[in-house]
Amino acid sequence: MDKITPCLWFDGNAEEAANFYVSLLPDSRIDRVLRSPADYPSGSAGDVLTVEFTLAGRSFMGLNGGPEFKFTEAVSFSIDCENQEEVDRLWDALIADGGQPVQCSWLRDRFGLSWQIVPRRLTELMHDPDPARAKRAMESMMTMVKIDVAELERAVEGG
Known about the structure:
This protein is of the alpha/beta class.
């Protein structure tokens, strides 16, 4: 585990969430599952208390802390996607089974965690040295829910 590890609070489904997340990205795995040695406010001895997992090479912990705290958009995970195929694959997986699309590359998965699914090309276009092209990229992105790279390219070219 890293010196600093983000801890994600779940309501009894940390192991399910961690298994789902590690299935999405390379260099991801479940590292350790800790079962509670005693009863605790939101569970019993023997229940999964924490799940340590690596997601795209970074350490995380899932805690089954109970229903008191929910995820908000104040914290989200941004995934840099190589191409539209990767955007589509991750988007579809993360909104499946109760996830919700939001806007401008944002979605909320079925566990309530917010994600930004960002094609690398969007970032490149928004950093275009020509301010007019960058503006068109930004304006086009603001009309989208899931980012469409081909549509961005058309908008930047003035179409």
